[in-house]
Amino acid sequence: MPSTEKELNANLFDQLTIIERIERQLNSGGVDAAKAEIEILKKEINRKLYQQPPIKNE
């Protein structure tokens, strides 16, 4: 969980960006384009999640 308001806001902005990207694909390319965008986003998120070395040492 985010420990500061700044981290929380950054997470919310990231989520909003994801939604906007999917909406843009729905409006311009339809469902198939949106599905393709979702797959790209999943790969980006997984790269961040499993990057080496990790962003934050626990």
Please tell me about this protein's structure.
The protein is mostly helical and 58 residues long. It is built from 1 helix and no strands. It has one helix at 5-49. The chain is flat, with a radius of gyration of 14 Å. The model has no long low-confidence stretch (mean pLDDT 88).
Give the terminus-to-terminus CA distance.
13 Å
Tell me the number of helical segments per DSSP (H or I, 4 or more residues long): 1
Rg result: 14 Å
Q: What structural class is derived from the secondary structure elements?
A: mainly alpha
Which outline best applies?
flat
- Helices and strands, in order, run as H
Helicity range of the residues? Answer: over 70%
Spans with pLDDT under 50 lasting ≥5 residues? none
Tell me the strand percentage band. under 5%
Please give the number of β-strands.
Answer: 0
Mean pLDDT: 88
Largest sheet: none
